[in-house]
Predict the structure.
Amino acid sequence: MATEVFTHLPEEHDHKLTAEFARDHLPSEEELFDLAELFKVFSDSTRVRIMCALSQTEMCVYDLVELLGASQSAISHQLRLLRTSRLVRSRRVGKHIFYSLDDDHVSSIIRTGLEHLRHTKGEHDHE
Amino acid sequence: MATEVFTHLPEEHDHKLTAEFARDHLPSEEELFDLAELFKVFSDSTRVRIMCALSQTEMCVYDLVELLGASQSAISHQLRLLRTSRLVRSRRVGKHIFYSLDDDHVSSIIRTGLEHLRHTKGEHDHE
DNA sequence: TGAACATATGAATAACTGTTCATATGTTAT
DNA sequence: ATAACATATGAACAGTTATTCATATGTTCA
């Protein structure tokens, strides 16, 4: 009379139906590809640090070299990537080229990411 | 051969000062590293598609295989990564193992990313 | 029990990515 | 024009990563 335990349920789970449902509610394949490309830019610690720094203040290349302790070449290469991804813009002042964020979404994405980290850090501290 | 090098005239822009300023206002090196690690998970189109699908509905592995047209092995490998990153969780029902998002921040990050894409897409359509 | 199904996993590989090194381009002052 | 400075860039190399293949584990059903 107690609860009867079903060791197996005859649930018919329809893959094709579920897949179809999800497909109808998903962004286009192309958009999801672009999205991954966007996050790829955020997926390197040198680049995140650059973006984070630029969210504080405009900086020239050598400032970033000083700040991050990376080689001038490395920074320059990463800045090019950020430039072609339209996440930063640059303006020349004499010998210097100053970089700044091109878009408010950049810091927004970084902020959300940090929020997530801090949140889950508090949740499961152990392990 | 200690050549006496004249350090050039003071410029209007001080690298060390700017770097110092930014350093004081930056998250810790460790946190920025973790942040990059987090975004790394979002930086593959297969994984983004998985997460996006799971933000709609719980799905089992084969649903995802159907939906994404990738091999069962590939999906499984990516799910493991998502699992160990604590971005998805799983529960077993008979033969199936159902996956779902483990955290609201996941869809939040995806949403912000998509927002950025759509925004900038509209801004500069040309080139 | 064995057969069929659902998922996981280790190893191998091909493709990609970030850094370094060497060098080039562009700018300013002498 | 030359030197010194600031930045950019191509090539090469080492390290990483996503997929595939083969196989293993776990579950249900006859």
Q: What stands out?
A: The first strand of chain A starts at residue 59 and ends at 60. Confidence is low (pLDDT under 50) at residues 1-10 of chain A.
